[in-house]
Amino acid sequence: MPELRFDPNLDGTELRIGLVVSRFNPEITEALEEACLSELYACGVLSEDVVCVSVPGALEIPLALEQLAETGQFDALVALGAVIRGETYHFELVCQESAAGVSRVGQEFHIPVANAILTTETDAQAEERAPVKGREAAQVAVEMANLLLAIDAQLGEDNDPD
Questions:
Q1: Which member of 15, 93, 135, 147 has the lowest number of beta carbons within 10 Å of its beta carbon?
Q2: Identified catalytic residue from 90, 96, 108, 154
Q3: In CATH, what number is assigned to the domain containing residue 28?
Q4: Domain count for the chain
Q5: How far apart are CA 7 and CA 87, in angstroms?
Q6: Burial 70-87 (b: 16+ CB within 10 A, else e)
Q7: How far apart are CA 21 and CA 146, in angstroms?
Q8: How far apart are CA 83 and CA 89, in angstroms?
Q9: pLDDT tens across 60-111, in order?
Q10: 119 or 90, which is more confident?
Q11: What's the confidence (pLDDT) of residue 16?
């Protein structure tokens, strides 16, 4: 069998993307959302093909992602949030549980989920990273949605020679 290669594809036309945005640390999450939406539109995703939902905090993001994934209407999902270290162990708990939940949704529903839940030591770090991570999350969502579609088109059951 000749080599089959799937190159990165950031063409978002005809993709439907769902965003879940935490309202905790709103200055940060609003910057994440703004950067993510700007990049999605730059990739060709239409505004009518983007659904944004907000949740109280990072721990609620996985459940909302799961609900969106269950609809079967999305090519990719994006998690946007900010967890900034405090003086208690709660930081570690929220970071670990939200990341595990986001990963679980992607694997359980076989849908790309870009995780842009920032976990930083300080507000300044979060403020600095928000625009970059918001853009990167959009790119990851588009690229991974296209990759899965391309794999299905080239190697899916309908293309099985048997």
A1: 93
A2: 90
A3: 3.40.50.960
A4: 1
A5: 44
A6: eeeebbbbbbbbbbbeee
A7: 23
A8: 12
A9: 999 999 999 999 999 999 999 999 997 666 788 889 999 999 999 999 999 9
A10: 119
A11: 98
Task: Flag whether 5 is in a domain.
Answer: no
110 is catalytic: no
Residues 136-142, mean pLDDT to the nearest whole number: 98
Q: Please enumerate in sequence order all residues whose Cβ is within 8 A of that of 70, keeping only pairs 6 or more positions apart, or say none.
A: 109
The answer to the question of residue 100 being in a domain is yes
The C-alpha atoms of residue 83 and residue 126 are separated, in whole angstroms, by 9
Give the three-state DSSP class for 5: coil
The tens digit of pLDDT for each residue in 9-42 reads 999 999 999 999 999 999 999 999 999 999 999 9
Domain that holds residue 104: 17-152
Rounded-to-integer distance, Cα 132 and Cα 67, Å: 27
- Asked whether residue 1 is domain-assigned, the answer is no
